[in-house]
Design a protein that fits this description.
alpha+beta; BirA Bifunctional Protein, domain 2; Elongation Factor Tu (Ef-tu), domain 3; 4 domains; eight-stranded antiparallel β-sheet; 20 helices; about 25% strand; globular; Ala-tRNA-lgiase_IIc; EC 6.1.1.7; alanine-tRNA ligase activity
Length: about 700
Amino acid sequence: MATFRRVANSQKCVRAGGKHNDLEDVGRDVFHHTFFEMLGNWSFGDYFKEEACRMAWSLLTEHYGIAADRLYVSYFGGDAASGLLADEETRNIWLDLGVPRPRVLPFGLKDNFWEMGDTGPCGPCTEIHYDHLGGRDAAGLVNAGSPDVVEIWNLVFIQYNREADQNLRLLPRFCVDTGMGLERLVRVLQGKRSNYDTDLFTPLLDAIHQRSGAAPYGGRTGSADAGQVDRAYRVVADHVRTLAVCIADGMHPGMSGAELVLRRILRRAVRFCTEVLKAPQGALASLVPTVVQILGDVYPDLTREVDRIIDVINENEAHFLSSLQHGSRLIQHTVSRMEGAGSLFPASVAWSLHRDLGFPLDLVDLMLEERGVQVDHQELGRLLSQDNKVLSEQQAGARPRLQLDVLSLAELQRRGVPHTDDGLKYRYRLENGRYEFPACRATVLALYDGRALVPEVREGQRCGVVLDQTCFYSVQGGQSQDQGYLTRAGVQDVLCAVEALTRSGGYVLHQVTAADTLKTGDRVQLHLDQVHRLSCMAKHTATHILNFALRKVLAQSCPQRGSHVSADRLRFDFSVKGSLTCSQLQQVEDCINDIISANQVVHSLEVPLQKARTIRGLRTVDEVYPDPVRVVSLDVPVSELLDRGTDSETSVELCCGTHLLRTGAIQDLVIVSEKQLVRGISRIIAVTGQDAVQVG
């Protein structure tokens, strides 16, 4: 895909955390969602502003037949403090396309300058807004929060990179990234005043009504929505879609990162479903088949995973309900004891609800808002900071990995620096029972100091080294990176330990702290930690055998949900109805150790991706693979599997990792633990070699 210049796509999106977070808005209005389907078109250094605007206007007004007199466009009006001029080019493009001058509106950084995060590619954007009423001048309602004048399409012109010091640098090649929410588009095309009145949501709202003790959905918002019932309808309908899609993708509610966000969404849904809509326990999960009915033809993984999605939601709901009841009583008791209007809810109680009962803090705010009370946010912030300080101190020793930024990547390409040849990582051989790894001498093609490419680095300076070739394995998938060090030609006694390895745009960056002056053009020798590599190879091959053995013993597909291979152990996550019995685990171990004892040959071959997918019995995970792709098989050569066209009783997977050449070097495998992470997903931890002998 690196060769693509023009792309159009549809993608599943969740906006419920980080800089772009719609979680708090869902339910309050009729057009925000945590999960939505994003329609987009992209240009990677191909077309730019004029063609992007022209195509968007043509699609909406000519192909979809949307009335042009209902549309308004916004553009970036500049920002003096940032030194950014108004995007007059885009303004003039819209005028040339026939958009009336009063409908082409300037806005500032907040509305019309797009940034995904604190750093990275960014740029001005132009948005197309639709007036659902029409027959009036609605220019004053654009970007004013009106439910009837809503943005439907955002065209982002990526022309800058936001640096760590917050300065903007022009990109060497400009790109276009547009996004149009399917839900908002369908609302326009079906002539509805609300996203929730379209056929993407009405079956869900009907199903909620059938399961709840509430009146039918009425579409009310704000003060007109007595008891917040219609808001609850919208929250539950939105959140159950998000839960279904995320759980089907392999996520589950957890305690950190994206999994914590999913946990918040689930608990918000449970609270609105049970307390506001008066639905019985289990009602939330019972909506999943309706979600599948609406989305399953486009996302078949929903259909395959429907039972597991229901189980995960039910299990998590059961865990939270007792806490919810306890917390509601605690809030009511505390509010009743507060003195007079304007009193702040004690931060210590809010913190206890969060820490001890698992209430997301936004849910605490929501429940207090319904009672006309606010928490003491200043004191709550202090408690949060105090708690975070402990975590920060624990992580103080961790050093972030260097990663080539987009400008440095573009500069490497401008200079004609070739991509790193890392083929040597696969070119080892087995001689008289011993693995021999090739020597690797390389030339320093570039040095990166974390901000820009530099010609040299001094002793003690942390940097990333780009070489013409490497024998080191950098992280691709679930295998740990290689370990080792570099020496400069002629200075063999000065070692630079390779602290980390990262891949960006075809370049492998070797992170080191220079032990001496290092310059572009220097010759270096790479020294691989062979013991560490061999241990990883053994665990990786053992993981493939485990994957095969599970399918054979359980006589079901057991889709892989994730894995990680390190020098000391392997971890494998997979879908299965419940925990394995002791007998099943023993059968899996026996199957694995039979293959190890047989000392089967491990075959690998790089083939075109489409051809690889024709192999019967091929095991894959839900991720993007390179093309061509490396196929790894046991006992039966890959070329034979390609020719057969029949299912083979052997392990065969797409894999970029490093493997043994024969299975015997694994020696032994023992499953240390197997447990369900959540209902429907199990995790196996296993060890090999002497560790397995000692455990056994």
